[in-house]
Every structure is written in C-alpha cells, then in structure tokens.
Task: structure prediction
Amino acid sequence: MALKHVNAVVVGAGAGGGIAAKELSEAGLSVVLLERGGWSHFWDYAHDELISQRTTPLGNAFGPDDEKYRRVVVDRDGSSRVVLPSEGAYCNNAACVGSGTVSYGAMAWRFMQKDFMMRSTYSAPDGSTLEDWPIRYEDLEPFYEKAEWEIGVAGDDTQNPFAPPRRRPQPMPPFRYNTEGRLLDPAARRLGWHPFPIPMLRNSVPYGGRPACIHCRFCVGFACEVNAKCGTHNTAIPAAIATGNCELRTQCVASEIILDEKGRAGGIVYFDETDRRQTQTSDIVVLACSATETPRLMLNSRSRLFPGGVGNRNDWVGRNLQGHAYAGAFGLFEAETYDDAGPGACLAICDFNHGNAGLRGGGAICNEFIRTPYLFTSRRPPGSPAWGRGHKDFQRRNFKRCVAVHGPVQEMPVFDARVQVDPAVKDYWGIPVVRLSGSRHPHDLEISRFLADKAALWLKEAGATETWPKLPGSGLSGGQHQAGTCRMGNDSKVSVTNSYGQVHDVENLFVADASLHVTNGGFNPVLTIMALAYRVSDYIKREWKGTRFRA
Result:
C-alpha cells in the first residue's frame, strides 16, 4: 500500500535535519523525518571508553554498522581501498537520532564576521576555491540567537573581545574553570592574550526541563548520563513529534530522490527497518544527511535532466570537502593538573583566528576535553616508546600531569577534495557508496604550524617542563566536522544552492546541513549548522504560504 503523501520529507535527524523538521512541523506542514540509525541512549554503552571514542576498531557506539556500510578511499598514489565506519579514513558521522549532537563535545561557536568574507579579506591562494559566502554574519545572527535559546547554550561573549556582535546574551551562564583553566588563564594574560570561557551546548544550570551538567569525565564521545548535553535528540526532534505533524522513521536508509519529468523533487525512495524498499512522496525535500551523505544521495539521483546527479549540472556537487585540521601542543607539568572535573575543555583564546601575518585566517585555541586512559595512550612525545615498560611508565607518571591545548584550523577549500559515488562498490542495500579523494591545501599546514607554536608558548608560560606539537597530516580532511560539498552561492555555475539552501536547478529541493558551508571557520561548526537550518526553514515557511513549492 502506498504511503500517504506529505508536505515535506527531511532526510537526516541530526543538527540540521532535526531543526528543519521542528520548524516545518510547527508551521503546520506534514513532515516525515527519515533517520538511518535509531535512538541512542546512555545505557547502551555507558562509560565504555573502548567503543565510545568516535572511531575505534571495536566499532562505533553511535553507528553506523560496519557490516552494512562501507566507503572507497582513493589514496594519494591513485590506488583505492574499501574502508569501514570503524576506520578513520571513513570520515564517519554518527548514525542515530540527533547524530553527532548526542556525543559531541558541544562547543557552541558563532563564526566571526571575517569568516563569511574570506576571499575578499585575504584573496584565494593558488590551488584553492576559497570564496566569500553569499550571506554575511548579520544575516545569520538572528538564527544563531534562536539556536542558542531554543537548543540551549552556556557562555558569556562579553568576556571575548573578538566575539562578533550579538543582540542577546547566551541563555545560561558559562561553565567554571577547572584546574587547567585556572592554570592557563593567567598565563594567557601574561602573554597579552584574551582567555574566556568556551560557549557550550550544555546545561550549566537546569534548562529546557533538563538538569545541569554533573561534570562527568565521560563527555565528548559519550552520551550524557543525565541528559544535560543539548542536542536535537532532546530538544528539536521531540518538539517536532509533539506537534502531531511530524513522523520520525528510524532505521530508514535513503537511496535516491524522486525526480519528475520537469526536474522537480517528488519525494524519497528509501529502505525501511525491514529492508523493504519504500517510496515516500512529498511536495518538498530537505537533505540534512551530512557533507558526505548528502552529496552521495544527490549524485545517486539521476534523470534525463540530471544525468550526473540532481543539482550537478556544473559538477560542483561533492566538491570542496573540508573538515578541520587540528593543531596545538601537549605539555607536561611537575604538579598534577588533572582534577576529574568534566567536560575538561573550559577556556579558549581567539587572538589568532585572524590577523596573522602571511596567513589566511587561523583558529581558536582551547584546552582539551578530559582524556580517558585509553586515549592518553596516544599522547606521547616524539620518539617515546609505544609499548612495553617505558610506555606504561609514561602512562602512570604523566596521566595527571599532561595538558593539551589545540584548535580547529580554518581550511582552504580545494576543488578536487571531493565526494563521488563509486561505480563498482555498493552497500548492504545495493546503493553505490561514497568515494573519497583529494587532500588538504598546503596552506592549512602553514596555519597549523603557526597555531602549534602559539599553543606551546602558552603551555610553557603556564609552567610546562616539556612540550611537543600536535600537527595534522596532508591527507583528505573530513571527519565529524565535514562541510562544504554543496556550497551555497549566488552564481549557479560555481555553487550548488542559493543563499537559502535551495538547489539552483530544483526549486523544491533544499540542503540544511554543513554541506552548505563555503568555508568552515576556525571553530567547531555545529552552531552554524543549526543557525543555517533555522534560516533555510524560515525561507521555506515564508514561501510555503504562497504554495510556491506545490506541484
């Protein structure tokens, strides 16, 4: 029996899709929200650090399943290999209701004004497709505010002299500093820098009917045991379902976008929880699957008008894949610096996001989340033994005396850093898989070395007796901060959507995830994903009143 026609299908119940489903259902549209995973709860894995730290050989606590998903990675020498979600090269995002907002570190950054104007500020380096956004910070500011108040952010931007202007403060007070914060704050000030509390999508006080954070050490990479971490799984998606207009369908894997003879989107073909092929028709389609899965779905949706995939007339779908190179330093101290007060990360500086001589942009530098013993085994100075007595002695002696400060580098987008679909390899359902290829721009490594030097200087000023750098490699950048593969723009020849996430060639097909990002900032991008989802949804709601998207 055919499924009932709805106004909107939203694909992906993460940071962007959860908000789009809420906004459209609250506006009175009938919505089906498709999620490839299921609900994820703290008690599924509790404090199991061997599986809950994003990607491990043991699998992924928040999905997807190694047995059903795979990808192809093209290495620098042109050879290709199949990789599974439990391997780092997969560039995995969580597959569950709420996606990465269930397990993320929850830093809640607004991009700076210059982050939207990178090309006009710096010019593009050779080999990069660096460009300005078609919108400015001021266009997104009201939606940043809405995300902060509806999802819930703790912070105080008045302490950050580099923060962009805002009309309203964050709704919750910032988190207090732990021992590391109290050590690093005065050291930064002695250097003439400007430390401040990191804004967090985490309850510092009871908010939204949920309790305050209990400062558990198991935070980033884990679900919150008291539900104090703020994500779409415990805010926007329950609100969408409560309207009675939104149906959430879990364990549903989208395979293609339905396209009619005029090139309009007509819904989604997907495989349900029983692996049965289903067709859900709709007036509009909103894609929020991630910056790897959204282009995959578009490239797998072909028709007479779009032989290379929907929206891909000019070969820009899947291009410009960015994540974040992470750069910083580790430092060892004579006294113990570990006090077991989670989440650990609590202060930052933005002195080096912009204005660095000879460099295009930069990035924030923050102290790191609490290290579990398993993760600490990879924190070693160059030349240290990786196994045996020496390795164990270092672990015992330094676990409570090591401080890490680092941050995400604003990367230069590259045309050939890309997502394609593989012509031969298919997943469990017979859908052509993601094929990843390309590498970082060399300028990313220049910025990384600059930030690593600043991080080491900061640690030494705080009293570190030994420091060593944390630097990224030159390979393809993706991972949990993946972005840029369906960039927005005013010129359809060099972008995939307009400034409202509307695919240039298909007026009733929208994107509402980090695929839209023209650049990815020097910050964790989730608050920008949420703000863009609010803005895209606002546009759909305004245009819907005139039934513009009805066939």
Notes: The chain has a mean pLDDT of 95. The CA atoms of residues 122 and 532 lie 24 Å apart.
